[in-house]
Amino acid sequence: MKRFLWALVVLTVLLVPLTVSLAQDDDLPWWNDRVFYEIFVRSFYDSDGDGVGDIRGIIEKLDYLNDGDPTTTTDLGITGIWLMPINPSPSYHGYDTTDYRDIDPEYGTMDDFRELVSAAHERGIAIVIDFVINHTSDEHPWFIASANGDPEYADWYIWRDENPGYRGPWGEQVWHRNGDRYYYGIFTGFQPDLNFENPEVTAAIYDIANFWLTDVGIDGFRVDAAKHIIEDGELQENTPQTRAWLADFNAYLDSVHPQALTIAEIFRAPSFIGAEYVRSGAADLVFAFDVSDGIISSVSQNRAQDIVRKLQAALEDYPNGQFATFISNHDAVWKRRPMSIFVGNVDKAKLAATLLLTSPGVPFIYYGEEIGMFGTEPDEQVRTPMHWDDTPTTGGFTTASRPWIALSETTGSVASMTDDPESLLSHYRHLVH
User: Fold this and answer.
1) Which of 30, 46, 102, 319 has the fewest Cβ atoms within 10 Å of its own Cβ atom?
2) pLDDT of 7 higher than 80
């Protein structure tokens, strides 16, 4: 570990020439000095005792995240929230909506959400929501109408009379039968892709985005599956058409809400590919999976050169440091939460947090990461309820007899770590503040 810490000193020296220009730039956008916190609403806090987390639960826990008083350090101190999907959906995760303009009734109401936005803004917290526009649910009224031959929606999805036969980037089936026709869905048959070569689809998505920014008052979007927006035959990711569409979309957002943030998920893309989205105006930020890989491998395998190399590449590729960093998220990118990767080693978890929160880039913390929650795939096991206290079975997450899914193992709870100056939670608080 001492050798690794010495390597971090070398890392700092190596990165100074690359970061000094950023530090001198007074024109960097508002998000460059923010620390974001990713929340899966279903698992954060249940305010009404039904076993499912909800929007009012987030409101009740805002003081934990940021109490609005810059002189205190007893809160986590984050200044941005990314909410995983909040729209109605037949799936527990929400990544297949049936209504882009409403709130999942299990999570609350639009009035609840507006209250959350207002309360967050009072504390200086920006709100970014997941915008799942590559595809909808197959239960969305648009798809039902399209599948039933309604001429108004005939071209809103991608249909073929014959099965083109080719498969997706992971070898999966992407053409799904419906009656005597086939529709395209890169993820599953339950998630049909929208046809963004149809101007009517684009206009509908623009209008929905304007609604959330102007009427509801959010601060931006995390565009899910952004690299798949427009496919070109068997080329199903990172097409020029996709970047062009996103650039137009981003320009539209700037026209109606100049301070809106667009974060693109370009899953597992190396820095030179992700940076193309920023350089072309297709996104304001892109998640730097390479940097995150570098942090995890450096800490777990004591290889400081990994993070040095990945950060250097990101700083050279992305203009003005416009990339987002993280060490965990809802997709179990490394099949496990960091504490599972580090086999319960709190010192390694602290080191990973230090790299995340002191390196260039806009950092994102995944809920529960700061208390050392464990989790290994499938995805549900890295999306389990937050441990607020040490109550058996519920962890203070709910007053119901049991939560929507069983708790994971954890290093500790918010309650057990709050007053311990050596805890992982205290380490995160110190770094964020």
Assistant:
1) 319
2) no
Question: What is the residue-wise DSSP string for 155-187?
Answer: TSB-EESS----B-TTS-B-EEEETTEEEE-SS
Q: Where are the beta strands (DSSP E) in 132-276?
A: 159-160, 175-178, 181-184, 220-223, 261-264
The letter for the amino acid at 39 is I
Tokens standing for residue 52: 């499912």
Which of these, 322, 332, 411, lies nearest to 361 by C-alpha position? Answer: 322
| Block residue for tokens 């993280």 | 326
pTM over 0.85: yes
User: What percent of the chain has pLDDT above 70?
Assistant: 94
For tokens 């100074």, what's the residue? 16
Identify the band that residue 15 occupies on the pLDDT scale cut at 50, 70 and 90: low
pLDDT at residue 22, rounded to an integer: 52
Note the pLDDT of residue 20: 43
Cα distance between residue 348 and residue 344, in whole Å: 9
User: Nearest CA to 269 among 319, 314, 330?
Assistant: 314
Instruction: State the Rg of the chain over Cα.
Output: 21
pLDDT in tens, 208-221: 999 999 999 999 99
Encode pLDDT of 342-400 as tens digits: 999 999 999 999 999 999 999 999 999 999 999 999 999 999 999 999 999 999 999 99
Q: How far is CA 107 from CA 66, 118, 229, in A?
A: 21, 17, 28
- Provide the pLDDT for residue 3: 47
Going along the chain from its start, the domains and CATH numbers come out as 32-132+288-432 (3.20.20.80), 135-193 (3.90.400.10)
> Cα separation of 46 and 330, whole Å?
19
Beta carbons within 8 Å of 23's beta carbon, 6+ residues apart: none
* Residue of 39, 62, 53 whose CA lies nearest to 107: 53
Q: 353: helix, coil or strand?
A: helix
Among 418, 419, 324, 425, which residue's Cα sits nearest to residue 367? Answer: 425
Q: Which residues form the catalytic set?
A: 224, 265
Contact 162, 182 (CB under 8 A): yes
